[in-house]
Amino acid sequence: MRMKLKMFFALVFFTFFQIAIFPDEFQDSSSVDDSIQREFLVLMSRQRFNLNPHTATYSSEAQILDALYEGLYSYDPRTLDPIPALATNCKVSRDKKKLTFTIREGAHFSDGSEITASSVRNSWLLLLSTPNAPYASLFDCIVGAADYRTGKISEKDVGIIARDSRTLVVTLLTPTAHFTKIICHPAFCVRAFQDNVFSGAFVLSERSDEQIVLKKNEQYWDAENVHIPSIRIKTDDDISENSWAFNTGKADWIVSAFDASLLLNRSSVRLSTIFGTEYIFFRCDRPPFDRADIRNALIAAVPWEELRKLSYVQASSLVYPLSGYPSVEGLTETSEEDALELMEAARKNAGIKKDEKIRLVMGILASSERQKRQFEILRDAWKKLGVELDVNATNDSRYIEAIGEWDADLFVYSWIGDFADPIAFLELFRDGSTLNQTAWKNDDFSSALLEAASTTESDARYKILSEAEQILLDDGVILPVSHQVSLHALNPLAVGGWFTNALDIHPYKYLFLKHSSSEIPNVVQHSQVKTEISCSLR
C-alpha cells in the first residue's frame, strides 16, 4: 500500500502492556445514517506529501492517493482481495497471458469527462515513461513494458491496447496471477492529463504544509455509497495535543502520532502486525561491499539479539510468513571467530591488506534514535574486523529517495508489501527493478523469479520464491531486523468502514460515522482533560 516505499517513523510513546487490542466492530454500511455524517478529521505526524501517484513512495501518501484516484481494481477494505472498480470484470485467456478488462459504464473524472479504455492506457503509458517512477517495473510482466520504460521501443509496441472505448486488452509475457493485486495500488490508477482532475471518491479541496482537505467527488461512479462529505488531514508532531484532540472528540482517527497512555478510551488503540519488514541493506555497487564474501564476514559478526531487542516482532528473514510459504534459513547466528576467519579470507581474495582499515558509511536519519542505536551496535561489532563504521546523517525525512546519490554504503529501510505475496518484497532486489535500491544483481535470483512468474500452481510457485529469498539472504545483501506493526487510534463504536488488515490499508471511501455516546462530556475544557489524565496515571 500498498502501498507501497513505506517508511515507518512513528512518533509514539507507550508501553505495550498498557494497550488492549480489540477486534474490529463490523456494521453493514447499508444502515448508515447520512444525517449524522460530517467532516472527518485524521491526524498524522508532520511530513511532506507527494501527491503524484506515479512518483509517490510512502504509505501515508498512498492512503490519500487512494481517495483521489482509482484504478481498474481496488482493495476490499476487509479482506484486501482485489474487487472491480473502474473495471467491471476481467476475462483471462486460456493461456493466461491475455487479460481483457471491461471499463465501467458511467465512469467519469471529477470534471465530468468520460473515463474510457484509452484513459487507462494513457495513464499506464505515462507511468512507464515517468523518470524515477518507483513502481513502474511491476508492469515488466506486460509485453514491451520494460523496453518502453527504458526507451528502447515506442508505445505502439507495448501490450496495452484500447480495443474500443470500453475494452482494454493487456498481453503478458508470462501468466501473472497477482496482476489484479498489482493494479489496486495508486501508482496504477487512472489519471486525467489536466491538473486537479480526479478519478477517485474524493477531490483535493485544500492543501498547505499543515493540512490537506478532501471533498466528496460528486462525479464518482459510486458516489451514493461515499458517506463522508469531507476529510481533513492535519499533520502535527505534538502527541499530547493529538491525544487530547482524540479524547475530546475533535479527532476521529490518529495515525501513529499519539501517546497511548493518555487515551481515556484504551479500546480505541488498534495495534497489529502488518505485512512489512525493517531491514538494513548494503549498496552492492560500492567496493569492497560489492563482494558477497566481505558482506557475509560482516554479517557473521552482527549481534542479532542486541540489534533486534528493541523490536516488537523480530525478523530473521525478509518475507513476513504467509500461509503456505516455505520457511527459509534466516540470519540468527553470531560468531566472532567465524567472522574473523571469513574476513581474513575475504581480504585476501579482494587484495586488501590484513591490517588495512576498511571504511564503511551508514546513512541514517538524524532524528531517529533507533537508527543511531543500530549504528552504534554495528560500529562496535565490526571494529574487531578492522572495519571503521562512520555515519552520514540527514535531517531530510525523505532521504530514502536520494539513496542513489548519497555517499553511504549501508541504509535502514522499511517496506510494507503492496499486496500479500512474496513478490511484493522480492521485487525490491530484482535486477532492472525500479524498486531496487541495493544495486544487487544475481543471475540465480533473477532466474528464480522468472520461473516463479510462469508457474501457476501456488505451492510450487511459493517454493521457488522461497528459494529466491534464500539466495538473497545467503548473498549477504540485507540484515533483517523486525516485522512492522501498525498503530492507530480509532473508536470502532463511532467509526465504521475501518478494518485492521495485514497491509495497513484503510480506504477513505468506506468510512462513515455511527451513532455513539461521547467518551467525555463536551463541556470538559482542555486543562481539565489534562488534569484528569495526569491523575489517572499516578
Question: What brief labels describe this structure?
Answer:
538 residues; alpha+beta; 11-stranded mixed β-sheet; 4-stranded antiparallel β-sheet; globular; disordered C terminus
Radius of gyration: 24 Å
The helix tally amounts to 13
Mean pLDDT, all residues? 89
The level of helicity is 10-25%
The count of DSSP E runs of length 2 or more, i.e. the number of strands, is: 19
Q: What's the overall geometry?
A: globular
Secondary-structure content class: alpha+beta
Poorly predicted segments: 1-27, 521-538
Sheet of most strands: 11 strands, mixed
What is the rounded distance between the termini? 40 Å
In terms of DSSP E residues, the strand content is 15-25%
Quick gist of this model?
The protein is of the alpha+beta class and 538 residues long.
